[in-house]
Amino acid sequence: MTETTGLFFNREQSWLEFNERVLEEAQDKTNPLMERLKFLAISASNLDEFFMVRVPPIWHGERPDATGLSPAAQISAIHKRVDAMLSKQYNCFARSLLPAMEKEGITFFTYQQLDEKQRAYADTYFSEVLYQILTPMAIDQSRPFPTINNRTVNIFVELGNDEDAIPVRTVEWDDEDGRWRIMEERTGGVRYAVVQVPTIVSRIFALPGYHRYILLEEIILAHIDRLFMGYEVTRTAFIRVTRNSDLTIDEEETDDLLHELARSIRDRRWGDPIRVEIVNAKKGLSKAAKELLNKALGLTPEKIFELNGPLDLSAWMAFAQDPDFAHLRNAPISPKPSPDFPAGVSMFDIIKKRDVLVHHPYMSFDYVVDFVREAANDDRVLAIKQTLYRVSGKSPIIDALIQAAENGKQVTVLLEIKARFDEENNINWARHLEKSGVHVVYGLIGLKTHCKCCLVVRREDDGIRRYMHLSTGNYNESTAKLYTDTGFFTCRETFGQDASVLFNVLTGYTKTTEWQKFAVAPSTLRTAMKNLIENETAQAEAGNPAEIAAKMNALTDIEIIQALYRASQAGVKVRLLVRGMCCLRAGVPGVSDNISVSSIVDRYLEHNRLYIFGAAQRRRVFLSSADWMPRNLDRRVEVLFPVEDPDLQNELTAQLELSLSDNVKRRVMQPDGTYVKPSRRGKPAVQSQLEHHRRTAEQYRQSVEGE
Fold first, then answer.
1. Please, are residues 372 and 397 in contact by the beta-carbon 8 Å criterion?
2. Active site (annotated) includes residue 79
3. Contact at 8 Å (CB) between 149 and 196?
4. Which of 39, 63, 30 is nearest to 604 (CA)?
5. Cα gap 142→118, rounded to integer Å
6. Would the pTM count as exceeding 0.70?
C-alpha cells in the first residue's frame, strides 16, 4: 500500500485497498462464474460511490490528513491507484470473464460480428424502439453543452472536419492603417453533439439464438448517422460522468427539513463532475473535442480516466442475477429457524424468561418482523417506539407499525431521512407513516440517528414491562439476506430504562449522560470505548492477561488507534476483524507488535459490530451499531450495549473465533497495508460463513430432536 506516513494509513487508500479485496473475488477462478461477475460489478459500483461521496471533500479540502498528505497529494494518489484498479477490472472482464461466459454458451457480439439474421433483428429494434426515444443534443452558440446525467453512458459525437469549413467574410477596423479591412475565415466545419444511451430499456440486448447478446450502445453507434442526417459523423467516443452526490443541508436554517432534503436530492444529479470515464470508439476524441469537454465539465487530468471496454461495469450486476444462470452462481442457502423461538409460542413469553440472540442471514429475519407484528396486534401493548435508518421499498416492518397505529397503539418512529442514497425512500415512508397516524420524528439537528432499537411497552399482570430489540443492522428484510448482523431481544429493566431515555432524547428535550447499560454517541460512546481499551492496558501493565477482540466495518478514528497502540505496547493481545477501511498499521515493531488485522470478503457483507474486552472471568461482550470512526463516535446517535448472559457471551465469542480462523475468505493485513490470505498448509479449509450456516442448522436440528 502506498501513500502512508508514520503509523497511520490514509483513509481513502485504505478504502481502495478494501475494494482491491472485492476485485480479487472477481479474479478468483474458484468462485462460480456469475459470482465473479457480481463481485466485478460490486467493485465498480463501490468506485462510483467512492467518487460521489469520498473524493469531493478532498477536492475542496485545505488541510492535510492524519498521515500528513495534502489534498493535492491525496488526489494524485487516488488517481494513480484507481487507474491501476480500472486496468485490473477491465482485464478481468475482457480476458477472463467474457471468455469464461463464452465457454458456457453466453456470447457477446459487436455489431460488426453479427450475422445477417442478428443484424436485421438489431436494425429493426433500432428503427422501431431506439430511434423513437433517442435525443441527439447539439452543441453550438445557441445550444450550450448539455448537462450529462450522473452515471449515464453517453456518446460524444464529432461531425464534419475543418476541410468542410464555410468561408465567411467579416469587416474589422485596422488601428495601424486607420481603415476597415475585409477579413475572411473558414468556420462551421466541425460540430459536436451528445447522445445519451437510454436507461429506460435494458442495456444488454438479447439477440436471436440462445444466450446471444449485444450492448445497446453498439447498436446505437452502428446507426449514429441516422441521428444526424446530412452530416458526416467523423469521430465518436463513449463518456460517463460521475458527479458530487454528497448532500449539504443547513439544518438550523431550514424551516422544512423534508422539503429542503427533497430539493437537495433533485439537485444531486447536477453536482460538480468529479470523474469522467472515456472509451474511444470511431477515432476517439480530437484535441479540440477534448478541450471542449474539459472546459464544459471543468476537468483536470486527475478527473479523467480513459478505459478499454464497456463503460459502467456495475451494470452487469443484474445480468449476473439472471435466473437462467442459477447454475453458475453459489447454491442458495436458506436462513434457518431459531431454536429459541418455537412456533406457536408468544415471543414476549420467551423474552420474559431469557435474552435471545438472532444471527442474520443464518437465522430468519422473520423474528424481527414478527416481534413488531405481535406487538401491533397484542391488546396488552400500549406503545411501540422504533428507530429506522434504511428500510426496504415494501417494508413489512412499516406495515406492522401502521397496523399498530390503526389498532390504537401509541406509535413513534424516528425515521432518519438523511440516510445517504436512501433519502428519497425514507421521505416517502415518513409521509406514509404520518398519514396513518404514526408520530414521525426526523432526528436531531446535525446528527444522523444510526442506532437500531425497537421498544415495546406492555401492560402485564405484575405491571408495565418493556421489551426491546437492539441490533447491529438495519430493519430491512432485504439486506438481512445479504448482510451479517446480530439482533438482541431482552426485557431487562435496566435496558428498558435506557431505551426510554434514548427515545426521550430523540423526540424531546432530554439531555443526559447518565445511562444504566448503554453507551450513547455522541455523548458517552467515545469515552466508554477508550475506557474499555485503557482498562485492558492497565491490566497488562499489572501483569494480568489482557485481550481485545473486535469486529467492525471500519477503523479510522485516530484517538482509538492511538489507544490500541498503547495497549499493544503494554502487552495486550489485540485481534481485529475489519471489513473495510483500517487506518491502523498492524505489526509495526515496538508499536503494534501485538495487533493483528484481518478482513473477510465473501458471499455476505460482514456488517455486525462486536467488541470483546478481557479474558476468562473478566470478559465483557458488547454489540453496537457503531464502527470506530469519527462519524460514528461524534456525529451520529449510536448505541453500544452489553450482552450479559454467559451463554450468549460464549455464543458471540465462538462466532468471532470462527471468523478469525477462516483461511479461505479471510485476508490478513501486512505492515505495508496490503492483505494476504493465511497459509492453509496442512490445515483443513475453514470458510467461516458456510460454517456459520452449518452450525446454525445443526443447532436447530438438535433442538428439534430434543423436543
1. yes
2. no
3. yes
4. 39
5. 40
6. yes
